[in-house]
Each structure stands twice: as C-alpha cells, then as structure tokens.
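Cross-check.
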Amino acid sequence: MLKLLMNKYKFGIICAMHEEAEKIISEFSLREVNSFPFEEFENDSMILIKSSIGKVASSAATTRIIEKYNPTHIVNIGLAGAINKNLQVPDAYLVGSIFQHDVMIDIEPYKTDLNMHLICRNINFYNGDYLTLATGDQFIKDGTCIKADIVYMEGFSIAYICHKYNLEPPILIKGISDYTDNDSSEDIFINLEKAMGRSIQLLKSIIKNI
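Predicted model, tokenized:
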C-alpha cells in the first residue's frame, strides 16, 4: 500500500498550458523548485505543476503531485470552451460534474469505469453555477452533440486520479475563453488575460475561505 507524505502544501495546482500557469506563478510569487519531469513552482502553501495538454499528461502530473507532494487540496485551473451559450466570456466558474466525451467502448466491466461521471469539489461560499464539464483529447469546434456546459481536455483525468487514490474530489476552476462554434484556437489567446484574471480571483477566494 502506498504511504503518502505528510501535507506540506495546502494547495496543489495543476495547469495544462504555459500561458495559464505563468499568470498564477506571477500572481502568487511562486519560485521554481523542479524542471524534470515537470516544471514545478512553490510558495509556502502552494505547489504548482505545468502538466502540458491532454489526458495522458494531466494524469501523469496529478499522480506526481499526489505521490511527491500530497497537497491537502488539488486544484485544476485553466481555460475552457463553452457549449452553453448562457455562459459569458471571460467569466470563471466552478465545475460540479465531469465525464469523458470521447470514450467509445461497450465491453463490460471496462465501460463502467471509462463512462463514469465524477463529482468535483463543492465550495460552500460559492454562489455561482456549477458546470458540467466534458473532457476529451480532441479540440472541439462544434460542441452541439456534447451534453455538457463546457469542454476541456484535462479535467476528467485529474478527477479520475484523485478518485483512484480515494482522495477528496479536486476543485476545478474554469475561465471561459471561447464558444465551441467559433474559431476557438484564436479566441483562447485573445481572451486569456481576462479569463485567467477572473479565474485567479475565484482561486483567491477559495484560498481565503477554506
């Protein structure tokens, strides 16, 4: 049985994109502590890992942050594309539930594991909507067939690893950078500054209150 380390850090942050991570590193004055196999940054209460994009990379980074650092709370923060047109660019929201939209398997018992819906961490002071997030390794430009509010490449894998370690569900903060029917790849970077700014403000509220 794996014996986890004592909690040195209260918050373990996983970011996929360099551009997302750099905003947090600057805002919280994080210093680099490791560059291999992931770039890792810390202050007295926080450890951040740049995972890179995709489910494989974020699974590896989540396993790393649990086994090496074992933070009290695991947080995934980053930009997401909106399917739900009621969501506003560049607002930030918390995720309530999450599933994989790109799983295609009908073999028992494996489909039960792969097709599961996972619950993310609720925050008692948060008054906004909790979103349903769909995770897949494809970059989505038309989300009309996906029954979710937002899409994001890494979320499910982070929640899945926490689930497998019997840990508290992660906190997922998503800044809306674009809608899935637009030229999303360009809109991400146009709206990155504001969407990440609002995501960081939500992160600060969480840090202050839990």
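The mean pLDDT is 92. The CA atoms of residues 16 and 53 lie 5 Å apart. Passed to J.P. for a second look.
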